[in-house]
Amino acid sequence: MIKVVVTGAAGRMGSRLVSLVKDSAFLTLAGAVESKGHHALGEDSGEVAGCGHTGVPIVEDLSSLMERGEVVVDFTTPAATLGHLRIVAQHRRSIVVGTTGFSATELDELRSVSKQIPCVFSPNMSVGVNVIYKVIAEMAKTLGEDYDIEVIEAHHRLKKDAPSGTALKMAEVLARAVNRDLGQVGVYARKGLIGERKKGEIGIQTIRAGDIVGDHTVMFGTMGERIEVTHRASSRDTFARGALRAARWVVKQPAGLYDMHDVLSLK
Ligand SMILES: NC(=O)C1=CN([C@@H]2O[C@H](COP(=O)(O)OP(=O)(O)OC[C@H]3O[C@@H](n4cnc5c(N)ncnc54)[C@H](OP(=O)(O)O)[C@@H]3O)[C@@H](O)[C@H]2O)C=CC1
Ligand SMILES: O=C(O)C1=N[C@H](C(=O)O)C[C@H](O)C1
Questions:
Q1: Where in or outside the cell (predicted)?
Q2: Which of 25, 41, 88, 183 ranks highest by number of CB atoms within 10 Å?
Q3: Mind listing the pLDDT tens digit for each residue in 6-61?
Q4: pLDDT surpassing 90 at residue 267
């Protein structure tokens, strides 16, 4: 049994991770962590997650769990993730990071610390989205520059970062496929008398409403037709299952920064 510590254990993703680890034949819950002052501190992680008693209380100090835990699964905030990553590196354990919304400086730090330990980092842990990255890269190359490219994402009203990490990754994959620099061609909002769409733009548009779990569409449009590739997550379990698959995989890897393409052998 692989010993898993869940950080952000009372959150939307953390709760599903606690529940799925509790049901797993391969993983066991070694710890659950929440933010300083969180109302769930001291409570049973399973009771908080709604899956029954686990016997694992929610605590605020990740370091105290590092003797027991083999792999940390982290869906929190960029600042919290970087703190957790440093602790995991000090104790030479493994980590799976699903958090999104990092600044460029934070990403640099994540990349440098994560090289010291086995780390899987992916803005979307679902199999479907990771297969779509390959498909859209191929489509962008084949369709060529006469097809305009737009990425549209929709999420629940509580999501804090925009655009989603997945939409940004899709835009990066598309830009790389057609040899464009996303920093130059990415358009994140349109308003007013902005003129005709510029050739080569890659649009990234954000919708926030209600309880949408996570929708992503890549649209290729030209005169006379458009093609849309859409992924819709209907349950957070698709991300949580992917993260736990990554946890089982990463504990067997040498130090290095990996993504879900490595975990799923899609490279
Ligand atoms: N890669 C993927 O497949 C997916 C990625 N995500 C990403 O995961 C992240 C979390 O999403 P979600 O679960 O919806 O968010 P939630 O806000 O529901 O959960 C995050 C939890 O982390 C807690 N937290 C904050 N700081 C710390 C800390 N220092 N130590 C421990 N816990 C902490 C929060 O506590 P508090 O409430 O006090 O802030 C909260 O309970 C987001 O960045 C999201 O975009 C989400 C789904 C899938
Ligand atoms: O915050 C979320 O909910 C999600 N975040 C991820 C992202 O930003 O891409 C993945 C998923 O779509 C859900």
A1: Cytoplasm
A2: 88
A3: 999 999 999 999 999 999 999 999 999 999 999 999 999 999 999 999 999 999 99
A4: no
- Segment 148-168 shows an average pLDDT of 98
How is domain 2-121+236-263 classified at the architecture level of CATH? Answer: 3-Layer(aba) Sandwich (3.40)
- Determine whether the shortest distance from the Cβ of 80 to ligand 1 is under 6 A: yes
Q: Is the CB of 166 within 6 Å of ligand 2?
A: yes
- What architecture (CATH level 2) is domain 127-233? 2-Layer Sandwich (3.30)
> Which residues are catalytically annotated?
155, 159
pLDDT for position 131: 97
Q: Is 199 exposed, middle or buried (0-12, 13-18, 19+ CB in 10 A)?
A: exposed
Number of neighbours of residue 92 by Cβ within 10 angstroms: 11
Residue 166 Cβ contacting ligand 1 at under 6 Å = no
Q: What number is the ipTM of this complex?
A: 0.99
- Domains of the chain, residue spans: 2-121+236-263, 127-233
Exposure letters 7-36 (e unless 16+ CB within 10 A, then b) = bbbbbebbbbbbbbbbebeebbbbbbbbbe
Q: Cα separations (Å) of 159 from 90, 118, 209?
A: 31, 28, 10
Ligand 2 pocket test, pick from 121, 122, 124 with the greatest ligand atom count within 8 Å of Cβ, gives 124
**Which stretches of 118-213 are assigned E, i.e. beta strand?**
118-121, 148-155, 186-187, 202-208
